[in-house]
Amino acid sequence: MRIATWNVNSIRMRIDHIVNFLKSDNIDVLLLQELKCTNDQFPYEILESAGYNCVVLGQKTYNGVAILSKYLTEEIRYGNEIFNDQQARYVECLIRGKRIASVYVPNGQEVGATAYDYKINFFEQLTSYLEKEIKNDDFIIGGDFNVCRNDMDVYNPNLWKDKICCSVKERECFEKLLSIGFFDRHRELYNNEKIYTWWDYRFQGFAKNHGLRIDYILTTRNIDAQSMYIDLGTRSKEKPSDHAAVVMNIQ
Length: 251
Known about the structure:
- The protein has eight helices and 14 strands.
- It is α+β, with helices and mostly antiparallel strands.
């Protein structure tokens, strides 16, 4: 099975890119973030015609997450019910015996801001919830975590030191999430490879490869991750998202 995660930064603006990616990369399950649309604005007809079941938690203007699957989706859970939070940042379902989730962690704006405190609290709630859930299922969670795990995941660590996505507290939150039983499969498979998933629209960020790795697919150990790649083509198209898709092949 081939699973991908992609922050599309507006599904309605990128719908052609998404359909092309689903076909070209033969994606079985696609985790989407930053839909920027309500449920009734979601392009169900286009994606269902392409052969995908759609699990959607939308939000006007901001946020929004979804799971697209060639297979039956069961036992759907929505983050705003789990976390008592109106922001649409988490959705999960059961697909072929595996529990699969899409998450969009808050950006946090800047260290010390109210939005930063909200980000840390979101991480803590997410970790507390998942710690209970992974005891019962094979679990895969992918999405935009808005954290560079370490300096290898930053094109210029000195420039980004202690800034948003690279602060000590954010990294501690991410490591705590891993410690409950998740594994950063990309680093396990390609330990020393420079990997980025986001490039600023400004300052020729993509052309200069001035990127950050903030998008991940994490799994429990019993998931057999065979290979992974970043589809740079999803970032190099005309009017692209500022994120590239991350793809994982599992047994």
